[in-house]
Amino acid sequence: MRIINTESEIEALCKALISPTRIQMLRLIASNRNINLNELAEACKITNGAVTHHMKILQDANLVELVYSQGIRGSQKNCTIKDYQFMIDILTANDNTKTYETEIPVGNFTQYEVYPTCGIASKEKLIGEVDSPRYFDDPGVRDAGILWFTKGFVEYRIPNYLERNQTFKELQISFEISSEAPGICENWPSDIYFSINGTQIGYWTSPGDFGENKGLFTPDWWDKNWNSYGLLKLLVINDYGTFIDGGKISDVSIGALRLKANDTIALRISVPETAANIGGCTLFGKGFGNYNQDIKVRALFTEKE
Question: Which residues of 62-79 are buried (b: 16+ CB within 10 A; e: fewer)?
Answer without folding.
Answer: ebbeeeeeeeeeeebbbb
